[in-house]
Each structure stands twice: as structure tokens, then as C-alpha cells.
Amino acid sequence: MTEFRSFPSVLTLYLSNKLYDAMLDLGTDADPDLYERFLSWAVVDN
Fold this sequence. Notes:
- This protein has two helices and no strands.
- By secondary structure, it is an all-alpha fold.
- It starts with 7 loop residues before the first helix and ends in an 8-residue tail after the last helix.
């Protein structure tokens, strides 16, 4: 995802949207570790 290299906050928004999509797809069977998979590694420096 080199297109987000200069815009880490946009990457976080993109991944948040993908997390939401995954939760909708999985419904009540959503894995509680989805946050770890989608967002925990995306660090935005201030």
C-alpha cells in the first residue's frame, strides 16, 4: 500500500472501512480479533 505512505491517516480510514465491511459480512460470527487484524498495526504518527 505504497499509495498511503504519505497519508497514514487516510490508510487508517481505509482500513476502518474494510473492518466495517468484514463485520457486516461476518454478521454475528464476527471474530473479536478483527481490530487486531485490520487496525492495530496501522500507526499514525502525530
